[in-house]
Write a structure and sequence with these properties.
Helix content: 55-70%
Strand content: under 5%
Number of strands: 0
Largest sheet: none
Shape: elongated
Distance between the termini: 45 Å
Order of helices and strands: HHHHHHHHHHHHHHHH
Radius of gyration: 28 Å
Length: 383
């Protein structure tokens, strides 16, 4: 792709920036097309497109690694380098813009960034709280910047409106993720027996899970562990309720303690939850009853089944990551196999053994054996 193939402003400074940008990588027209998008937005929508702002946008979006802005003073222009430097140094908590060119860079970048956020959400890539917080941070930074431009006034009202439209779209899409998760976590969608004890513990646990986590934290995990118990272990409401607290800890004032749900539920939690042992001796709070042991084994089974499902669908994983994943899979497989060997409940035993067989199939898959021979010592991470 040549400069003439783009929709960028025809200007010597912009062309210089384009040519410099093409030196950032050996080939790749797809990368170059993405690099020029912000500059094309300025070209098409700004009342007075600033060549240096367009040049700075092309450089910034085309970098594989961030270069020092000063090195473009001679190869492109001092002003383009200055725009780039100011964008790098922008205080995202209190953004200030002194020129129309700086606003043009920010507005075009906002449109692209916010459109990318919407695409990420639409692709289902905001399913966990880490992704949610990253996306939320991007939206909040753009919100502050656009509000500052609107407050100070701009010579580019159309570009501002386009960015604000993209902002509203991204905010709405993110709110949709939360609404979808809230709907997914309705008690009726858990598949659990509708018993007053189970329902009340679930609702309280869910409230805790949403406190500080917009996607409901461990609520889905706890519900899934309890479902394993209900399907394969016990119909006792208190045992199922205790399983609902497997990944539960009192983190904030006002949260119920496990024993507040009932003495037996609290005791089962003490014996079965990894959170109950946190900061204590590894042998503390070991299961003393068959019910507590079954809850712990159900949790291990749930995590193993999840590992198997994920690894069966995972693609493009780097070698070291796959080695680490296979190590964890083998550990989980061994603990579940141990549980299966001592299990008297035929339904639960069959499910445990099925998961072990699924793990074995993956561990001994020829392409996985090439990466990690089963039973090999764990790789030292070098920490």
């Amino acid at each position: 792709m040549k400069f003439e193939d783009t929709s960028l402003l025809r200007h010597p400074t912009v062309e210089k920036a384009y040519n410099v940008m093409r030196t950032f990588f050996q080939d790749g027209d797809d990368w170059a097309r993405e690099a020029v998008r912000a500059g094309e937005i300025i070209t098409a929508n700004a009342k007075n497109p600033d060549p240096d702002a367009i040049a700075a946008s092309v450089l910034m979006n085309g970098m594989v690694i961030p270069y020092e802005a000063e090195q473009f003073e001679q190869s492109v222009s001092p002003r383009a380098a200055d725009y780039l430097k100011k964008f790098y140094e922008l205080d995202l908590e209190n953004p200030k813009f002194s020129t129309a060119g700086e606003q043009q860079v920010l507005l075009a970048t906002s449109v692209i960034g916010l459109e990318a956020v919407q695409a990420k959400i639409a692709a289902g890539e905001v399913a966990h709280i880490i992704e949610y917080r990253n996306v939320s941070r991007v939206i909040d930074m753009n919100d502050r910047s656009l509000a500052e431009i609107a407050r100070d006034g701009t010579t580019e009202p159309e570009m501002l409106q386009a960015a604000q439209t993209a902002l509203v779209g991204a905010q709405s899409a993110l709110a949709g993720v939360v609404a979808q998760r809230v709907n997914e976590l309705k008690f009726e969608n858990t598949g659990l027996p509708d018993h007053p004890t189970i329902r009340s513990v679930y609702e309280e646990m869910k409230t805790w899970a949403f406190d500080g986590d917009a996607l409901g934290g461990y609520a889905q995990t706890n519900a899934a562990i309890a479902k394993v118990v209900a399907e394969s272990v016990s119909s006792d409401p208190e045992v199922i309720a205790a399983a609902l607290l497997n990944q539960y800890s009192t983190l904030r004032p006002g949260h119920k303690k496990p024993e507040d749900f009932g003495a037996r539920i609290g005791e089962l939690w003490q014996q079965s939850s990894p959170w109950a042992r946190m900061g204590k001796n590894e042998k503390a709070n070991q299961p003393k009853t068959p019910e507590a042991l079954a809850i712990r084994e159900a949790a291990r089974l749930y995590f193993l089944e999840g590992q198997i499902e994920w690894l069966n669908s995972a693609k493009g994983m780097e070698h070291d990551a796959r080695v680490e994943t296979l190590e964890r899979l083998e550990d989980s497989r061994d603990s579940v196999a141990q549980a299966a060997a001592s299990q008297d409940n035929p339904v639960f035993k069959a499910r445990l053994e099925k998961a072990v067989a699924g793990a074995d199939a993956l561990i001994h898959k020829p392409e996985n054996v090439k990466i990690r021979k089963p039973g090999s010592p764990k790789v030292d991470p070098g920490w």
